[in-house]
Amino acid sequence: MEDQPALQLLLPQRPLILGLAGCSGSGKTTLARELTAQLSATLLPLDFYYRCLSHLPSEDRSLQNFDHPDSLEHLLLVQHIEELAEGRSIDRPIYDFTTHTRVPDQTETIVSAPVLIVEGILALHYPRLRTLYDFSIYVNAPNEICLNRRIYRDMRERGRTEASVRAQFEATAKPMADLYVIPSARHASVTVEGTDALDWSVEQVLQRLHQLDLVRVHHARRSER
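Above: the chain's sequence. Below: its structure in token form.
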């Protein structure tokens, strides 16, 4: 009887999961989007997981502390990441920042990918989230730069006034950053500067991922196309 070739069982590979954090306005979202493109990743912003405030009068919603860890339903995100890690798709909530509510009866279907990037100011704060990461990134930037970027973003994308953005920054964003966001930097695998050129920040992250043999397979796939 001739020898038969051994059968190799190919099991699905678990996605590479990256956590990316930094203060609001640090440049973390820009970096996350670029890394998403570079790695053909699925991006999971924490911003979509703000708790729905539809139970509050509209005039009271904007008075909430959106920079406190309790403002995010992070355990739902944990559940979604675990499902994506197993190759299943998820129905992600859609959040309306102008009304501080989730869009009723609407979700966005997100499919798994070889790389998942979790991005948000508190992405490195929650222990349950940190246990899911293979690698983590913190984006550092001075307060004044963060404030100016936040004013530009919130006025353009979220219908805010400059005065309201400044008031919220002083009342909650900066104090919460001091308490929760900045201390979470110690959990990062690498820290980059939000004032550096985007290309250089991306290069630092990719170099470190290469050194750890975390993206070799993904880049090989990209080079074959």
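The longest strand covers residues 101-110.
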